[in-house]
Structure formats: C-alpha cells, structure tokens
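Progress report, Aim 2. The chain analyzed during this reporting quarter is listed below.
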Amino acid sequence: MSNDMFSQWLSGLNFEYWSTGQHKIDPPVFFEKWAKGEAVLLDVRAPEEREFLRFPFALEIPINELPARLNEIPRDKIVATLCTAGDRSNVAFAYLHAQGFGNVRIISGGYASIIPEIWPGKVRKTLQAKNG
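Predicted structure tokens for the chain:
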C-alpha cells in the first residue's frame, strides 16, 4: 500500500468506525472464529515476555520482526493482534493494514482479557466447537 493509499484508508476511519469498535475483536468472538479456522492470533510481544506467558495457539512474531516475516501471516483469515498493554497491537494493526491486510483486528483488552477465555470450561467448549 502506498502512502497515498494508507492516507486514504486512514481518512476513511471516521468516528463511526472507531466509536463502534470495528477495529477490535472481543476474545469470545475471536475464539469462536479461531475454532472455525477463520482467525489467527498474532502475538507481537518479545520472546522475553513469552517466557512468562505463552499462547501455544498463537502465531508469535515480535513487532520488530513483522516486516521480515509478513509472509507467515495468513491473508485469508482474521488476524487478531495481541500484546501486553495494546501499544504494539495498535502499531501492528496499522502496519498490517498498510501492507494490504484487510481483515485485521485488535484483541479487546489485551492479554488480560484472553485469560478468562482459556479457563478449562471455556477451553473445553472451544475445542469441542473446533473438533466439531
């Protein structure tokens, strides 16, 4: 995407877009889409952070490696970005859009909001939905 295209894309993201949360995806919705094979979690945290908490179902690409590893990110699925506090998720969101990824979302609430979704009962339901 050229600078002009990025500017045009950004100009189209008006109050309606931001105020209705179209740039985000709630964790329960993400996991529903993930179970159907329609979404991937892109964890853009540093390897040092992942030593303390990993999501084995996530695609792990540190934010600074995104430019060199774009080919690892599927273009045919929702790409939900995730980091600790949201800063890198936001940057990854904008960067991926600038690179032509059209279906990128930010996990609402960061990884703190993912934790309740990976409790045993919810994991069981998600895996049942995935395995069908």
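Helices lie at 3-11, 15-19, 27-35, 47-50, 66-69, 87-98, 110-114, 120-131. Residues 42 and 59 are 5 Å apart (CA to CA). These observations will guide the mutagenesis work planned for the next reporting period.
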